[in-house]
Write a structure and sequence with these properties.
The protein has 248 residues and is an alpha/beta fold. It has a single domain, classed as Aspartate Aminotransferase, domain 2. Helices cover 41% and strands 15% of the residues. Strands 3-2-1-4-5-6-7 form a seven-stranded mixed β-sheet. β2 and β3 form a beta hairpin. α4 crosses α5. The chain starts with a helix and ends in an 18-residue tail after the last helix.
């Protein structure tokens, strides 16, 4: 779905674009690093220049982000894995979400690609909390800034899950017209399977707790070995994520 969204932007732009991104001399994306390789190969495929952004303990370095987007009109997008980010396991702070929503961008059609892949993938009973960026962008007067993505591929079955996208009504209407030509309709049988199996948020929580019982001991073992072998050698550092980033 993210690949298709970038593809459509290259051919048609996004809501509010003056021209398709593919018609521009250069298109750039901000890429928090370390980050998710699947995002970067999409940029590579479409010859989108990638600008690395340092990852801090609470998310991307917002001083870097704000400086770049305020100065360069060719920066059209930014990749984000905001919760239990792959590979660091970092969750964006409320301040980072607020600054992403409020920042001034030279490109009027700048978009954040918000890949919320691990939204319910908790390993503890005190999960990280992530502020809703769609609501935050709307409150900041920039409702069209973000495309939110998620799926059940790490909940049910990879490659057989349900992908989903959330955005402003104007963004969605812009895409719906294109999607009506791209496909006749979604896989309604698979959607029904997921609805009948997962049913509601309560059942999703129980289901993900079963995932955690399988995955958490593996995390604990890795952390234990890192601590015993490297903990006092002052030669390496690592995070202790509250969520599962291992099912990508």
């Amino acid at each position: 779905m993210m690949h298709d969204t970038v593809t459509r932007a290259m051919f048609h732009g996004v809501y509010g674009s003056q021209a398709p991104w593919g018609k521009l001399p250069v298109v750039k994306f901000l890429c928090p690093s370390p980050g998710y390789d699947r995002h970067f190969v999409i940029c590579d495929l479409f010859i989108i220049e990638m600008i690395p952004i340092d990852m801090l303990h609470d998310g991307p370095d917002m001083d870097m982000v704000e400086k770049f987007v305020s100065e360069d009109e060719s920066i059209k997008g930014m990749w984000c894995v905001p919760k239990y980010s792959n590979p660091d396991g970092i969750t964006y702070s409320d301040e980072v979400v607020d600054r992403l929503a409020k920042m001034n961008t030279k490109a009027k059609d700048f978009r954040i690609f918000w890949d919320d892949a691990y939204t319910v993938h908790h390993l503890t009973d005190k999960p990280d909390q992530l502020k809703n960026i769609l609501a935050t962008c709307k409150a900041a007067g920039r409702p069209d800034r973000v495309f939110m993505f998620s799926s059940t591929s790490k909940i049910s079955f990879s490659g057989s899950g349900i992908a989903m996208m959330a955005a402003s009504e104007d963004n969605l209407n812009f895409f719906r017209k294109q999607l009506s030509i791209q496909t006749i309709g979604p896989d309604k049988i698979n959607q029904l399977r997921h609805v009948r199996f997962l049913k509601n948020m309560g059942n999703i929580k129980v289901h993900m707790e079963k995932h955690a019982t399988i995955i958490k001991p593996k995390f604990d073992l890795v952390l234990s070995i890192l601590e015993s072998e490297l903990g006092e050698k002052d030669m390496a550092s690592w995070n202790k994520p509250n969520g599962d980033i291992s099912l990508a």
